[in-house]
Structure formats: C-alpha cells, structure tokens
Amino acid sequence: MDAEHIRSLTTYQMIFTAIPLAFGILFLLLFIFFKRAKENLYFAIFLFFYSASIFFDYQASLYEAHARTYITIHRAVQPFIYLFALRFVYLICCPKLPKRFWLFVLLLLIPWIVAVCDPVDGYIYLRIVTTLIAIEICLVVIAAVRQKQDGAGLVAVGFFLYFGFGIFDALMDMNLGITIPFTEMQNPYAFGTIGFLVAMSIYLARRYARTYEQMLEQQRREKEQELERRLLEADNARKTRELEEARKLQLSMLPQCVNNVPGMDICFHMTPAVEVGGDYYDYQIDKDGTLVLAVGDATGHGMKAGIMVASIKSLFRTIGTNPDIPAFFKQCTTTIKQMNMGNLFMGLILVRVKEGKLIASSAGMPPILVSRKENQQVEEMAIKVPPLGGISGFSYRQKETTLKPGDTILLMSDGFAEQFNEKGQMMGYARAKDIFEEAASQKYTAAEIVDHLCKEVEKWRNREPQEDDITFVVLKFNAPKEV
Q: pTM of whole model > 0.85?
C-alpha cells in the first residue's frame, strides 16, 4: 500500500471517526441537560459505537499485520450499532417499546459470539441478523411515514442514506464481479454518515424544539390552572364564609329549649346536612295562652331552601297563631306559588296545645308521635297530604287528641328516620318510633330525650355522612320536676 493511499485512508478514518464521535458527545450533553429527551441518549450511544466501528474498520485496512485483531473488535462493536439504532427508532416512532426488541437482542447473541470467535467466515451469520434488524427499522420508519408522524420523513431520509451506503459497501466486500464505482473509498459506508447525521440532527433539533414548546405550553396551562384553582379557592372561601354567616343567622332565628311555658317542658334540636338547612322549627304563645309549635322541611338544601324557610317563618310569625290551621296552610301555599321558586315545596307540621288538648295538622311531613305515660305506648298521628306550595286550594285536614300529665310528643322531620348506615340500610320510621318509645319511657327531660335521639342517630350512621337535615321538637306535657 503506497504512502498516498495510506494518507488518504488515514484522513478518511480521522474525519469519519471524529464526526459521529463529536455528534455523539453533543447529543449526550443534550440528554444530560434535558433527561426527558431519551432519544438523544440512544442516538448518542449509537454514534459512539458507530464511530468505534468506523475507526477499527479503517485500522484493519491500514495495518494489515494486525488486521484480524481490528476486524474482531469491529465485529464485537457492530451489533450494538444496530441494537441502539433500533431502540432509537422504536422510541421516536412507537408509543411504547415493542416486545420483539428483546427477541432481536436474543437473536444477536449467538451470531455475535460466532463473529467474534471467527471474524471472517463467521461474520455472515451476524450480517444476516443485522440485516433483519435493518429491515425492521425500515418497516417501522415506513409505518411512521404512512401514519404521518411528525418528522418521520426526515428519519426516513437519514436511514435511506445510512443503509444505502451500507449496501454499497457490502457489494464491494462481496466481490461479486459487479462493476462498482469509487472503489478507492475502501469503506464507502462511512460517507453515508454525513447525510445521515445531518438528517437526524435536523430531526432531533426539531423534536427538541417541539418538546420545549409543549413543555412551555404545559407550564402555561399549569399556571392558568393554578390561577384558576386559587381563584376558585378564594371564591369557595368567600362562599363558605357567606354560608357560615347564613347558617349562624338561620340558627340564631331558631329557639332553643323552652321552660317558661307552664306545665310543659319543650326542647328543640336541628342538625343541618349542609351549611344552610332546609328544616325549620319555631313556636309562639297566643294571647289566650295556646302554645303553637311548627316543624317544617323544605325540599332540597342550600340557599333556596333557606329562602323558603325564611318565608315560612315570616308567615308563621305573622299569622301562625290563627286557630284555623288549614286556612294558614292555604295562605302558605298561595305565598309559595307567588314566589316562583320552581319545584320547591315546604312540608310543615303545626300543633296547637292548650289545657290538655292538642290540635294538629300536617302537610307532607312524618307522623306526630305521642307517647302515653299511662300505658307506655306510642301512638301515631299521621296526616298524609301533599306539602305546601303544591296544589292550590287543597283542603288540608287537622286532628285532635287529649294529653295527660307525663305524655310526650315528638315532632320530627324525615331526616331522622331516613338516615343510612354503612351498609346502605335506612333506619326507618319503625326503628325511629322504637327509639322514641325507649327514651319517653324513662324519666328523661325533653332535653335528655333529644340527646338520646341524637346519640342513636349517630350510632346508626356509624360515621356515614349525614344526607338530610335532622330536626326534633320534644314536648313533655305537665312533666314532673326531676329530683
């Protein structure tokens, strides 16, 4: 080999080894500074092995005395070029790594060992498997082009140059008697490196720019979402404060236990399911000494229900002492309809008690329970009619009963009996009646009976969320003083 040819090959070796090595270092640095882009890592490793392959391939041509050693190293390096090229293509073209990648890894193992042990005659087996990998790369890239994946055309151009010059080099090595131009290149596949690197660098730079733009867009959306979240939290905090103020206002409008009515011990209780409940209770004492009790339940919860409750309270305070309870109910229905609140209604119980006589009417409410001290039995006063605000001109009915000393009355909303436990079972009115009967049979004050009912409800729910407002009004008629 003359000196001029040696200089020429040495120049080719330096150029075609240094270029992929430099690009490999560049893409490795890009990965180090932006680890999200793993395509840069796989492409860098591919270029390192590719650079080593070119170096030792030219070394075998330059130093014929040690050619077998350099060819052996070349064979040892070559499988990693194809493996990392395939891994790179799978990453940029497939949503996830196909399982067949590991099949190719296994297929390469034995031919790789054979080629290292016999780098000349055993190389054919390695070429067969690497050719299969090259075909797989082409198929994946072609599929990406057909699917119009972003940048797939650039990848196709790069691998076309890479494999095109590789085939050209293989034809030279086979010495098939075909006239091949530029035979003085010795290893012409290295010339495909230039076009391949240019195409892939443009692709990766474009991909990096797109990824960076997407990251900036994601950061912008995250900032907008964070701003929206803060605004929503501020708005929710404001609404919570307003609802809490409304709840306090509503509760402040409701009376507590009453012990200033001669011969009667009365206690009220309400636990709203939300900040502003739809239940209501109240009482008045008429000029003639008649005690008037009211327990109501508006459909739904929240502010609308609160408005309904406030309206009924206003009516009760204005005309609630009217001895004609059905007439009062009709007036309530007329007023509710004039409010145009849609499908919002009001259940209501009104009870008048004087000198041992109880007159009651109910609209869409649970039965009134009366516990008789004489026989320790609980009677039901049930009046099944629609709630207020439903049917105009409806004829509401009322019932009467006589109270004796020690008798206890329970007025309640449906939230008491319709609480659910962790098994999804509703407590039910029969169980509610039994609980009241148990409490009324004891020498409990009205407040103690309310406390007992509340504890039984909590025990039944067993930390399950409260789904409806719970309201009790307990009245002990002529209750004996506790010693």
A: no
